[in-house]
## 1
Amino acid sequence: MGGALYLEPRLGPRLGSLLESDRLLHTLADALGSPLGVVLPDQLAENVERFRSVYRGHHLAGQIFLAHKANRSSALLRRLAATGAGVDVASLGELQHALGCGFAPSLITATGPKDTRFLWLAARTGATVSLDSPAELDQLATLVRAHGLPRVPVLLRLSGFEGAGVKVLTRRSRFGTAVPELDTVLDTLERYADAVELTGVAYHLDTTSAAEKAVALEGCLLALEECRGRGLTPRAVDIGGGFGVSYLADRTQWERYTTELAQAVLGTRPPLTWGGHGYGLREDGGTLRGALGVYPAYRPVAGERYLDDLLSRPATAFGGRPLATLLLEHLYDLHTEPGRALLDQCGVTLARVLETRDVGTGPLWVRLAATAGDIGLEEHGILMDPVLLPREPGPTTGPVETYLFGSLCLESDLITRRTVYLPRRPAPGDLLAFVNTAGYCMDFHATQAQRQPVARKVAAWQDRAGWRWCLDEEYWPITPPGGQQ
Ligand SMILES: *Cc1c(COP(=O)(O)O)cnc(C)c1O
């Protein structure tokens, strides 16, 4: 077999402790069904504190806004409200949810393309509107004037930045106003001064490249200068999200896996995937072509450390001085909108093993009471092993090769196309814990296909007596979080 190719998840102390409470997790899945999402609100508060420490390290003011779209949980949002951090909402439903979870409108930013109802509620309550396009500015100003709404704080979302002298172009975005149109939009903003107030500029780039983000941040600083040259007084730069998560515990496992995957695609070792899937790689006359289209699951720098790194980068148009220094000197506020990174280690998805089937000499077939959409990792290109939580204790037999199938009657319902090595043979009734799913995986793709109910979600926390839990919607950041006293 050539040795097991594990991709072990990185487990922080809190998530690690929860997984050790495997009796509790079995009881929960028995009572509430499989799949089951478990979220850890206190971890989110800890992650906010880590981002804040980077702000403090650079002496920067400004707010951290969680990108709500990454998870629907009420418990997470309510716990976040209690930290004083903000939230970035991208739909009418998310805005209503944020208001109901206790966020003051001054701590809510509405981003993405918006319809009239969404704009109205944002304007009515006083949330900040991150303008997605010049047309949206027209729509918002018309709405404010027609309904006598209070003047709306707005951020101008920009895209299409170009580095000064360096060959770094930020990737094309569907969202925001292109930098060359800045002048025209500022003219319009001045005309609408009775309806909107420009408080800052913004970008969000869906990339792992810090070089691209540095170009965009520098572009925002230049745009702010232009605004101030006109007598406008914006003072915030909102740099969006995309700080990333390192999912795996071990760099060598990741490097070995990707090397062996390439070998498998070339046919110089046995396949590592269902049907020889190459995750973007293919063989062409003995040569490897294509590019590995998965998330870089092991990342040496991610989350708040990525932010720290970005802020320390030099700004070419400003004599090579660090971006953080420039923000500080101008007394600009720095806003961030992390989604995935703030939800790092904040959740786990449990799935029950329904059936195992030996199929010749190939990997063991394992069918789970969950669909690929419920687990979500594959959809997001995250290659990471689940943790096996056996129902009955037993000896560790050594690695077992498996294919993990979902519960839908669809050939394509594979939890992952990867051959997964488990440390022992799973049995019906065991649980697989897919960890670190709170960011995008847990409920982003959940459907009611085949009339199966959407997974339930619980919030879990620790007190002196150990792990406690309640249904997600029953959680409030008070003592006890689920209790009615
Ligand atoms: C999705 C999104 C984010 C969060 O992105 P992550 O990669 O999860 O950090 C932030 N801002 C905006 C505008 C978004 O659309």
Note: The chain is about 30% helix and 20% strand.
## 2
Amino acid sequence: MTNIAENIQTIRGRMAAAARQAGREPAEIMLVGASKMNDAAACQAAIAAGIDALGENRVQEMTAKLAEHAYDGAPLHFIGHLQRNKVRQVVGTVSLIHSVGSLELLAEIDRQAEKRGIVQDILLEVNIGGEESKSGFDPEEVYAAAAEARNYAHVRVLGLMTIPPVEQTPHGNLPYFVKIHRLYVDISRNLYDNTFKYLSMGMSDDFEDAIAAGATIVRVGSAIFGRRSYQL
Ligand SMILES: *Cc1c(COP(=O)(O)O)cnc(C)c1O
């Protein structure tokens, strides 16, 4: 049995240490539990232990767990690859969509949000390693995309998100985190009147480096819930 509450407490301690070391306030960094492949009871255990939000990857899994009240008591985020035909099920259901990696997806989120009469909070996903297998804007195109996104009245861009390449050496992703933080500050300052709040980066193996580089949200799965039987 994984002790979810104990794991969360340990991670909070490590997050706080990393924040202080970087001269930052621990309270300014959110812990999102990446709860894919974990059941409603595990989600509820994380919420009872004070997780800031839960993040899901798959619409079908999320919908099933919503019916089981898995997320009652905490904000729900969508962090996985989102297909355009599933947008309708996500808009208005989650408080933040981390993974908006194309203008087509952005336009569809805007369309569905308009239908529902809401403004959907989102992050732009950046494919910081330029990997074929990953979605997201290339680092060179995200500035233009963020400028374009201002034209959509029913989405509110609150920051950036990234999933760097699988780390090959200890601290190997730190340069990617530093690079995306620079983009984040630049876009917020020049295009969004410094209103960006969320830089979502860092997972079980590298959240301390992400915090050192300026993350305001870390998304942690296996270090909270234990190893998944397979990856999504
Ligand atoms: C699974 C997942 C995480 C968490 O990964 P761990 O290595 O298990 O901490 C974070 N972000 C996204 C988008 C994920 O799919």
Note: The first strand starts at residue 30 and ends at 34.
